[in-house]
Design a protein that fits this description.
Chain B: Belongs to the binding-protein-dependent transport system permease family. Chain B: It comes from Glaciihabitans tibetensis. Chain B: It is found in: Cell membrane; Membrane. The complex is a heterodimer. By secondary structure, chain A is of the alpha/beta class. Chain A folds into two domains: 236 residues, P-loop containing nucleotide triphosphate hydrolases (Rossmann fold, 3-Layer(aba) Sandwich); 54 residues, no CATH class. The radius of gyration of chain A is 21 Å and the shape is globular. Chain B is built from ten helices and no strands. Chain B has one domain: Orthogonal Bundle (MetI-like fold). Chain B is mainly α. Classes of the chains: A alpha/beta, B mainly alpha. Chains A and B meet through helix 2 and helix 4 of A and helix 6 and helix 7 of B. The complex binds adenosine-5'-triphosphate and magnesium ion (MG). Magnesium ion binds next to helix 1 of chain A. The site of magnesium ion has 3 residues of chain A, from helix 1.
Chain lengths: 301, 228
């Protein structure tokens, strides 16, 4: 469990990036910090591995104040994945993945063997092991970044807009992989994005932030979608535009068992399956995510 | 050209003298520039000071410097120590800028991610920043090498044995072949050094030859600085 207690961060130039932020990030779940550019997401994330130290307030991991842990040691125990992967351009893929184990003195052969296993875990072709990062596609680089983040088998994985720089198809692919990895590996993931759909897709818990990392709303995607806490949240998740409020089309004929849904703009937003000729209601937990996803694709089209 | 045929051993000897003086200077210039370049790059205030100081230093005419140095250092006028120090100072003046520029050219995303992974400050410098500054350092070192090899001919005026002696002696005694021998061998040394440095760079920085894409990510790491 990661706990922020009344954390503030004012940078030397006077920028108040984080104002009185308190939150609990439960273990073995994915918490997504989402908000527009400059609201303080990266700063919050970097406070967890002490790349940024809070001006005041405390951050605890499993009850231990991280200010009491040597920064280098702390960082080697936490996975970190960032946009543009941040791979070391002068090291081959396999050495990039093995970087932290090698830093910690793990014998090279062991570190490399483990790195190859991780390449399989994240769905990378093993033939890429001897390449340099510049010889990979953006999506492959991100996978290497994820593999590297997992190399020390950390309990905590910090991901800062890891899929911000890849195209939508590759991104969807990587998101699916992230969900799969999370199911398989059971890490505490803190994920930063400014894409609300990505947040709802990946997050068990979503924290919507306003400028200064002030919490606009915190909850499960379902709670937030059903009950936006404020105008700001409603606006941010697109509810005010009716983007997510779908109605059954009155004009389009049902196609077999499916009923066409339209959004407030009148555009087809997706279909809802109606087995046995009537709409199924009731069992809905993962549904809101997939529906919100379809909505987005239609809305952006 | 008779002179050349009759003096092959002497040409060989002077060439070796020339190499013996210049090779250590090139190496020293490089080694000493790394910490100075680091300081220049690390603190915004020091960058301007260090870089203008090195620029001004390079503008000092060489002959007076070589005459003045022994007085300052208390060494003999023809002492190789005096010559080595003088040439190294010029080498450093050139190399510091390349080092600072090279370190500044390292992608901040990369250094940040190195920090995030748990590199300590010193291991990050030696294992990430310095190697990644390599291509710019290499470009700088090539300039230092050529400059040192040619500057070393000047110290012949002081009577220090280098290929430069062929110029002074050849002009004095009006032997064209001797002058030519000096010029050609100086150029040959410069070329050989350059080839060695480039090959060493290829050996030590295999990622740079793996693909041209390595340096062509838009807006990143492309600030390769034209040396001089
Ligand atoms: N080192 C720094 N010095 C001064 N100000 C900073 C520094 N780092 C960040 N800031 C400022 O703090 C605020 C929050 O920055 P942060 O990087 O956390 O935003 P973000 O939410 O991650 O934005 P983005 O989505 O664009 O990455 C911004 O106003 C930024 O300009
Ligand atoms: Mg950010």
């Amino acid at each position: 469990m990661i706990e922020f207690r009344a954390v503030n961060k004012t940078f030397p130039d006077g920028t108040r990036a984080v104002e009185n932020f308190s939150a609990v990030i439960p273990s073995r779940t994915t918490t997504v910090l989402v908000g527009s550019s400059g609201c303080g997401k990266t700063t919050l994330l970097r406070m967890i591995n002490r790349m940024v130290d809070p001006t005041d307030g405390a951050i605890e991991i499993d009850g231990e104040n991280i200010a009491d842990v040597a920064a280098v040691k702390l960082r080697r125990s936490i996975g970190y994945v960032m946009q543009n992967s941040g791979l070391l351009p002068h090291r081959k893929v396999i050495d990039n993945i093995a970087t932290v184990p090698l830093l910690k003195g793990v014998p090279k052969a062991d570190a490399h063997r483990h790195a190859l296993e991780l390449m399989e875990t994240v769905g990378l072709d093993l033939s890429l092991a001897q390449r340099y990062p510049a010889q990979l596609s953006g999506g492959q680089q991100q996978r290497v970044g994820v593999a590297r983040g997992l190399a020390v088998n950390p309990n905590i994985l910090l991901m800062d807009e890891p899929f911000g720089a890849v195209d939508p198809i590759v991104r969807a692919d990587l998101q699916k992989e992230t969900l799969r990895l999370q199911r398989e590996l059971d890490k505490t993931v803190v994920f930063v994005t400014h894409d609300i759909d990505e947040a709802f897709l990946l997050g068990d818990q979503v924290i919507i932030l306003e400028k200064g990392a002030r919490i606009a709303q915190q909850g499960t995607p379902e709670e937030i979608l059903a009950n936006p806490a404020s105008e700001f949240v409603a606006d941010f998740i697109g509810a005010d535009r009716g983007k997510r409020r779908l109605t059954v089309s009155s004009t389009a004929q049902p196609q077999g068992d499916d009923v066409v849904l339209i959004d407030a703009g009148g555009y087809a937003a997706g279909v809802i399956s109606a087995p046995d000729g009537k709409l199924a209601t009731g069992h809905s937990s993962p549904k809101s995510r997939s529906i919100s996803n379809k909505t987005d694709q239609a809305g952006d089209a | 050209m008779n002179w050349i045929g009759n003096n092959l051993p002497l040409i060989g000897e002077r060439t070796l003298d020339h190499i013996a003086i210049t090779a250590p200077v090139i190496l020293l210039s490089f080694l000493i520039s790394v910490p100075i370049g680091w300081v220049a790059n690390r603190f915004t205030a020091s960058r301007g000071i260090v870089l203008s100081a090195s620029g001004v230093f390079y503008a000092i005419p060489s002959l007076p410097l070589f005459v003045a140095l022994p007085v300052i250092l208390g060494t003999g006028l023809r002492s190789p120590v005096n010559v080595t120090i003088g040439l190294t100072l010029y080498g450093i003046a050139l190399m510091v800028r390349s080092t600072a520029d090279g370190l500044a050219s390292v992608d901040p995303d990369v250094t940040q991610s190195a920090t995030a992974m748990g590199f300590s400050d010193s291991s990050r410098f030696w294992r990430v920043e310095l190697p990644l500054a390599g291509p710019v350092l290499l470009a700088g070192l090539r300039v230092v090498s050529v400059s040192t090899v040619s500057l070393a001919t000047v110290v012949a005026v002081l009577g220090v044995p280098t290929l430069g002696l062929f110029f002074t002696d050849g002009v004095e005694r009006n032997i064209l072949g001797e002058i030519w021998a000096g010029i050609v061998m100086t150029i040959v040394i410069a070329l050989v050094f350059d080839v060695i440095i480039v090959q060493l760079g290829r050996l030590l920085m295999p990622w740079t030859r793996s693909s041209s894409a390595a340096v062509s990510r838009p807006g990143r790491r492309t600030r390769v600085v034209a040396p001089v």
